[in-house]
Specification:
The chain has 441 residues and is of the alpha/beta class. The chain is built from eleven helices and 17 strands. 28% of the residues lie in helices and 23% in strands. The strands form three sheets. Strands 1, 2, 3, 4, 5, 15, 16 and 17 form an eight-stranded mixed β-sheet that branches. It has a six-stranded parallel β-sheet with strand order 9-10-11-12-13-14. The structure holds zinc ion.
């Protein structure tokens, strides 16, 4: 058997642990996983030596914003940043683009906008909004990976929130198709208006109880309907116990958190530094520690970026007003390094990283060919130097706008090479974008 590509590493992060291995690729898929020194015939044989071989990461929470708000971010720029950051699959959120992905027609518009521009594989979330119940089944059948809903104002008028009855109705519809509902869980009744340059006041305006009240509603609706529900961007660590109890009681619930909640603490955020604004907010270091413990205990299932950029002027750089600034943090290219920088200090391993950032999100989104170095999976591979430190230089970011709270941070762990379905992305082999638009399953 002659393979197209063999990639060897003394530290290959396989589903059953890290060990020396040779990953053999035929066409676009992993055809065999052999011993590191195995004699294999191949068109190309790459020996990474002590560099780590990771599965390509799967980021299920990315706002690309194209079409309609392409000046915020777009498929070409977002997927290029993803490839450089070791992310080989992204799932695009249904809002901030125009139209939002709340009907099959809108999904088709989005797929047309993305076609031919993507450097990594792209899947799509649908949206659940008031009045689109009839579109949920057709969207599911068209291959979306699940449905996003808000329980409070989303920040854009064309994507309104569900009330409690709407949440229950959507979950009831989705339970029949065994489709997943993901929820932005903050309760408007617990949130106060914020203004000014003081980050502490902004954090206080969106307290943990706002997340708790909304998550309670999601748990009750999931328990009542038997549907699968997922909490996006969990920030308030006090909710970990409640999520754990719901899971133990058999509610079909999962949760994610994001690199910025695991890396930053509110005490470090300078006044007026609106590049740190997200909703829910980055909280204090005590909360950060408790979030890490929830992740390490397996209550929080995955870590994904919530990459949500906008033009610098909407981040209100002029005034630094946390009330006026767009809430969203750009980190698609940096998430792996940011999480690994803290994780290694805590004694965590690259097996943990591969679970949190590749296999678990792939499982969440129903993408069985993604997120694992295993026979039959897509040959999405990342060569990673876990010891190389670097200072984040915004000029080297591929996001459309190089605005990020990580600017100037020293991160550890750098992506050296990325392969998408066997094609190397960072050394000129792929002259044109080779990413595909993919469907659940
Ligand atoms: Zn988001």
């Amino acid at each position: 058997m002659r393979y197209d590509l063999v990639v060897r590493s003394r530290r290959a992060v396989l589903p059953d642990g890290t060990r020396p291995a040779a990953v053999a690729v035929s066409g676009r898929a992993i055809a065999a996983v052999e011993d590191y020194g195995a004699r294999l015939e191949a068109g190309r044989d790459v020996d990474l030596g002590d560099l780590v071989l990771l599965p390509g990461l799967v980021d299920t929470h990315v706002h690309v914003n194209e079409p309609g708000r392409t000046e915020w971010e777009g498929f070409a720029t977002a997927t290029r940043a993803a490839a450089v950051g070791g992310v080989t699959t992204i799932c695009d959120m249904p809002l901030n683009s125009l139209p939002p992905t709340t009907s099959v027609t809108a999904l088709e518009e989005k797929r047309a906008a993305a076609a031919g521009k993507c450097w990594v594989d792209v899947a799509f979330w649908g949206g659940a909004v008031p009045g689109n119940e009839a579109s949920l089944r057709p969207l599911h059948e068209a291959g979306v990976v699940g449905f996003k809903c808000f329980l409070l104002d989303s920040g854009v008028p064309e994507f309104p929130p569900l009330d409690e009855a709407g949440l229950r109705a959507a979950l009831g519809t989705l339970a029949g198709a065994d489709a997943l509902l993901i929820a932005h869980a903050e309760d408007a009744a617990e949130i106060k208006a914020a203004s000014g340059r003081d980050f502490g006041s902004f954090v206080a305006s969106r307290p943990p109880v706002a997340e708790r009240r909304a998550i309670e509603k999601v748990i009750a609706a999931a328990a009542g309907t038997g549907a699968r529900a997922h909490i996006v961007h969990l920030s308030a660590a006090e909710c970990v116990a409640m999520i754990s109890a719901a899971k133990a009681a058999g509610v079909r619930l999962t949760a994610e958190t994001c690199p910025h909640y695991l890396y930053f603490a509110a005490e470090q955020v300078p006044d007026g530094a609106t590049e740190f604004k997200s909703c829910p907010p980055i909280r204090d270091s005590v909360n950060r520690e408790a979030l890490w413990r929830g992740l390490e205990a397996g209550v929080i299932d995955c870590v994904v970026s919530d990459h949500s950029p906008c033009p610098p002027e909407l981040k209100s750089f002029g005034s630094g007003d946390f009330g006026a600034a767009w809430g969203g943090i750009a980190s698609l290219q940096l998430g792996l390094s940011a999480v690994w920088t803290v994780a290694r200090r805590r004694g965590r391993t690259l097996d943990d990283i591969a679970r949190w950032m590749a296999s678990a999100p792939a499982g969440l989104a129903g993408l069985p060919a993604k997120g694992r170095l295993a026979v039959g999976c897509d040959a999405d591979l990342v060569a990673f130097d876990p010891d190389e430190a670097y200072v984040v230089d915004p000029a080297r970011l591929y996001h459309r706008h190089p605005v990020t709270p990580y600017a100037g941070q020293t991160l550890t762990g750098r992506v050296r090479q990325t392969w998408l379905r066997g094609t190397s992305l960072l050394e000129g082999e792929g002259e044109a974008p080779v990413g595909r638009l993919i469907k659940r399953g």
